[in-house]
Design brief:
Largest sheet of chain A: 8 strands, parallel, barrel
CATH superfamily of chain A: Aldolase class I
Number of helices of chain B: 9
CATH architecture of chain A: Alpha-Beta Barrel
Strand content of chain A: 5-15%
Oligomer: heterodimer
Helix content of chain A: 25-40%
Largest sheet of chain B: 8 strands, parallel, barrel
Low-confidence stretches of chain A: 316-321
Number of helices of chain A: 13
Shape of chain A: globular
Number of strands of chain A: 8
CATH topology of chain A: TIM Barrel
Radius of gyration of chain B: 18 Å
Strand order of the largest sheet of chain A: 1-2-3-4-5-6-7-8
CATH topology of chain B: TIM Barrel
CATH class of chain A: Alpha Beta
Helix content of chain B: 25-40%
Number of strands of chain B: 12
Radius of gyration of chain A: 19 Å
CATH architecture of chain B: Alpha-Beta Barrel
Number of domains of chain B: 1
Strand order of the largest sheet of chain B: 1-2-3-4-5-6-7-12
Chain lengths: 321, 280
């Protein structure tokens, strides 16, 4: 299984590779984007806070990455007039000339334009496409796509039932939850994170439910902090690696394009430790022990509060959420 | 222009046109679109939650009700996991076995695959969740460009849908009208009013509200079943960052689209579907 790490600069490549990353992904705007579309985002994250600054910087990243694949996210769910044409041409150049291994796409019009240009096999379907079943995966396989990134809110059993031959599959591993199903959230983070204030003004809902909801949202938002050992304290699926591996998941996503290098490194280190235990036949409990020892934050694990895949622990006492 | 009604129970009696024209939730839109429009279809099912897919008996009753009224029966379906897809497969097998062939609104490519491969006699309609356009209630509607509405948006998905045998395209009033296209694709264009969805997901507050404290609703809710406590429930939600009237219905948040927004979409629609209240 490969660990897919976010990055923003060539200087991040070497330490992330040393920490255990196998593949990289990043966000990048076309050079003419701002002139045409102003402050609108082309890839779901703020270009200055989370993106690679330009094509030259991307070339440096690809050079530094060597044999490690670099994928570029062009994964907004919707685009303004003319943007699909611009992005399809840009994507075509990235794949043909710039050495980019694959594009991460969500918008169907953009995806179809790139398929028509002969790039289907180098397209990774974003989790924003909300592919939740095998028939849907087969649909995209027939369109010629190379990889499906499964959404966050699937159980391990549902993931196992999604996997079909002839496609690569990627699953979320660590950091940054979503309150809603991200593919069905029609808001934009460019106007602020909508879900964080969700529920507060809901009439006639019991206060204890809203309190539990607030706590859960806080965990999805990485508890707003790190552990005392400097590791991220948010949604995590590390213990599920053996199940994901057995299911046929090829790639494990570390989330956080906008994160500092320190946070990316800490996340990739955790992922690599868990992956290596899994590779050597270790199971979920072993991974859990090692990760808690390394990271801290035991209480979140004990109660499955931060689990991406809590159905891994069927026998555990239910939690106070 | 004709119109349909989203009903909550399988044998709901649809209001007449005059009654609808007087209704706060439909009258203004219907009057603007066409005051003598005809009711041609009833919509039933769920667009947002597989736990709310109706059972065999209710769906058969719905189809019989529509037949008795001389209306088209349209079954709404949501995004589904393998469980939802299996359930839908069994439902459609039963319906078609009894001679019922309602149109099916799909919001999941896997559901379209099921329809195409196993139920080719059922007319597929592409649902509003397939339009991933912006619907952020904190934002204002985008101005029209120099060429008017951007009917090029969605051209690729419409062409694909048409090639796969889809007969209609559905949407609600998003912030950038144009997804329904100019009508040249040969797809019937349907607009759901007045509620526009904002966000949906699998972690449901209504489900949480009936789950005992300690049962781990938000962490473990995905794997547990649901008794659908949201049926008939629609709660007002107020936020400081928007004046739009927000509604929570089951696992989904909606807002009431302003008349001016709806009007720009009506101009691109062949059919309206009225919802008396926001429903998942």
């Amino acid at each position: 299984m490969k660990i897919l790490s976010p990055l923003r600069a060539a200087s991040e490549v070497e330490p992330l590779l040393a920490a255990g990353a196998d593949e990289f992904y990043c966000g990048l705007e076309p050079p003419d984007w701002k002139a045409a579309y102003g402050a609108r985002w082309s890839n779901r994250r703020h270009p200055d806070a989370a993106g690679v600054p330009g094509v030259e910087a991307l070339a440096d990243i690809i050079l530094a990455a060597g044999a490690a694949p670099v994928h570029v996210a062009l994964n907004s769910l919707h685009y303004p007039p003319g943007a699909v044409t611009m992005l399809a041409e840009f994507g075509d150049r990235l794949l043909r000339d710039a050495g980019v291994s694959a594009l991460i796409v969500a918008d169907m019009d953009l995806m179809l334009a790139l398929v028509e240009a002969g790039h289907g096999g180098k397209l990774h379907l974003s989790s924003l496409a909300a592919v939740n079943n095998a028939a849907s995966c087969e649909f995209f396989r027939e369109l010629g796509l190379g990889r499906v990134i499964l959404p966050r809110h699937l159980t391990l059993t549902e993931i196992e039932r999604c996997v079909v031959d002839g496609l690569e599959f990627e699953a979320f591993l660590i950091n940054d939850g979503c309150v809603f199903e991200e593919g069905l959230c029609a808001t934009t983070h460019a106007a602020g994170t909508f879900c964080l204030a969700d529920g507060g003004g809901l009439k006639c809902m019991p206060a204890d439910v809203l309190e539990r909801y607030d706590f859960w949202k806080w965990v999805q938002n990485n508890c707003g902090c790190a552990t005392s050992k400097g590791y991220p304290l948010g949604p995590c699926g590390l213990c599920a690696i053996p199940r994901l591996q057995a299911a046929g998941i090829r790639c494990l996503k570390v989330v956080g394009r906008e994160a500092s290098l320190e946070r990316k490194l800490a996340s990739v280190r955790l992922a690599a430790v868990a992956r290596d235990i899994g590779r050597n036949g270790g199971q979920a409990e072993h991974i859990k022990e090692e990760i808690i020892a390394l990271r801290g934050g035991a209480s979140l694990c004990t109660d499955a509060r931060a689990c991406y895949y809590p159905d891994l622990w069927p026998g555990q006492q239910e939690v106070q959420l | 222009m004709d119109y349909g009604l989203r009903i909550a129970s399988p044998e709901s009696t649809p209001p007449g046109c005059q009654e609808l024209l007087a209704a706060e939730w439909a009258g203004e839109v219907l009057h603007e679109a066409c005051p003598d429009a005809s009711l041609t279809a009833l919509y039933f099912g769920s667009e947002f939650c597989q736990e709310l897919l109706p059972g065999r008996e209710d769906t058969e009753a719905f189809c019989a009700h529509c037949q008795a009224l001389g209306l088209e029966a349209v079954l709404l379906t949501p995004i589904v996991t393998y469980k939802g897809l299996d359930r839908l497969d069994r439902l459609l097998a039963s319906l078609t076995g009894q001679g019922w062939f309602p149109a099916v609104v799909f919001n999941d490519w896997g559901v379209l695959e099921l329809l195409r491969k196993s139920y080719p006699a059922i007319p597929p309609r592409m649902g509003r969740l397939m339009n991933r356009g912006l619907r952020d209630p904190r934002l204002t509607m985008q101005d029209m460009g120099p060429d008017g509405e951007n009917t090029a948006r969605g051209a690729g998905i419409r062409k694909l849908a048409k090639s796969l045998g889809v007969c209609a395209l559905e949407s609600d009033a998003d912030l950038e009208p144009g997804y329904l296209g100019s009508g040249d694709d040969g797809l019937e264009r349907t607009l759901h009013v007045p509620f526009t969805f904002v966000a949906s997901g699998r972690n449901c507050l209504e489900k949480a509200a009936v789950t005992p404290v300690g049962a781990g609703t938000f962490t473990r809710g995905l794997k547990t079943g649901c008794t659908a406590p949201c049926r008939g429930v629609c709660r007002r939600e107020v936020r400081q960052d928007t004046d739009q009237p927000l509604w929570r219905a089951g696992n989904t948040l909606f807002f009431t689209a302003q008349q001016a927004w709806i009007s720009r979409h009506v101009a691109l629609a062949d059919k309206l579907v009225f919802h008396q209240q926001a429903m998942p």
